[in-house]
């Protein structure tokens, strides 16, 4: 982010950012990326077996 010339006003108050909802993360320090991605697809298949969600 680049500050405006002369800096920001002391009255500047940043707006609150968006809040994540229903966020799901996956990772592994044991398995390689191929294994983790396969698990993600298995999870997605179990959640939406008819592939109705985008």
Question: How would the blueprint of this fold be written?
Answer:
Elements (H helix, E strand, L loop, with lengths): L32 H15 L7
Detailed description of the structure:
The protein has 54 residues and is mostly helical. The protein contains one helix and no strands. It has one helix at 33-47. The chain is elongated, with a radius of gyration of 21 Å. The two termini are 33 Å apart. The relative contact order is 0.09. The model has no long low-confidence stretch (mean pLDDT 88).
Features:
54 residues; elongated; mainly alpha
The overall average pLDDT, rounded, is 88
Q: Can you give the helix content as a percent range?
A: 25-40%
Strand percentage:
under 5%
Q: Uncertain regions: pLDDT < 50 for 5+ in a row? A: none
What's a concise summary of this model?
This protein has 54 residues and is mainly α.
